[in-house]
Amino acid sequence: MAFRLRRPFAVTAALKQIPKMSSSAAPIRAFQSAATKTSPSTYLTSKSTTSITTLTKSRNAFQNPFRRSYMQQPYQVSRPDSGNLTQRLLYGAGIFGGTLVAINLVFNRETREDGGMPMFERKYLNETFLHTGLGVGIIGVAARALHQSGWSYRLMATNPWAVMGIGLVASIGTMYGTFATSPDNYVQKYALWGAFNLTQAALLAPLMFMSPAILARAGLYTVGMMGSIAFVGATAKQEKYLYLGGPLLAGVAIVALSGLAPLVLPATAARTLMWTDNIWLYGGLAVFGGFTLYDVQKVLHHARLAERGLVRRDAVNESISLELDFLNIFIRMVQILGMRQNRK
Prior knowledge:
The chain is mostly helical. The protein has 13 helices and no strands. It has helices spanning 2-6, 10-16, 26-35, 40-63, 82-107, 119-148, 151-156, 160-180, 186-204, 212-235, 245-264, 270-307, 315-343. The longest helix is centred in the last third of the chain and has 38 residues, at 270-307.
C-alpha cells in the first residue's frame, strides 16, 4: 500500500505496456467502445486517483523536511589557497613594517648621539628580553596545563571578588618578593619569579576557552606591537621617554577603575558600562604601549647605572615589567578579536 501511494501512476504505466489486441477483435472492441459512454465507475476511479495524487503530494511535501536520511554526504576538505595565504602574509608584513616606520618617524625623530647602543646596554637588554620570553612561555604552558585539568571551570565558578583579592595578593606578593631578593640568591630569586609566573597562569587559564586561532593572532599582534615600540625605545635618545612614568601611572589607575566598574555599577547603566569598557579596552592598549616604551628606556638607564656600579644588574626584575605589559596588551587583543568574530 505504501508503495502504491508513493507511485500513484505505476499501474497506469504497466497497463500501457500491454500489447494491443489482434486486428480481428479490433472491430468488436471498437464498436463496443464507440457505443459505450463513460460509466460512473470510471469517473469515480479517475476522481479518486486525482484525490489520492493530490493527497500524496501534500503528504510528501510535509514529510520530506522531517524525513531522516542515512546517506552520508561526502566530506569535502577545504584546502587553503596558497595564493591567499601568501597574500595575507605579505599584507601582515607590510602592515607591521609600515607601523614600525610610522612609529619610528613619529616618536623617534631624535636618535642617539653616542654613536649607537653600547655593548653593555645591548647585552643587558638581550638578557631582559630573554627572561621576558621565558616568563611568557612559562605562563602559556602552565595556563594550558591548568585549563586541561579543569582549573578554569572551578575558577569561573568562584566568587569574582575572592578571585580578585586572592589573585592580587598572590601576584603582588610574589612580584615584590622577587624584587626584594638579591640577584646573588639564585634559588630564591627564580623560585619567586616562577611562582609569579604560575600565579599569572592561574588567573589567565580561562582564556583557553577562546579559539586557538584567536589566541595565536592575538599573540602575534602583541609581539608585533611590543617589538615595534621596543625598537623605538631602544634607538631613541637616552632618557627621552622616562618622563612618561607619572602620566602612565595616572592612566593605569583610570584603566583599573574602569575595569572594576562592572562589579560595582548596575546592569541598567548600559551607556556608562559601554564607556568604561572602551576605556579599559582601548585606553589600556595605549597605556601599556606607553609602558613598554618607558620600560625599555628604563632597562637601558639601569644598564648605564650598573656599568657605573651604582645599582646591581638584575634582568629578572626588569623582565617582570615587560611581562606585565605583554599580558595586558595580549588580553585586550584577545577581547578585540573575540568581539570582531562575534559580529560576523
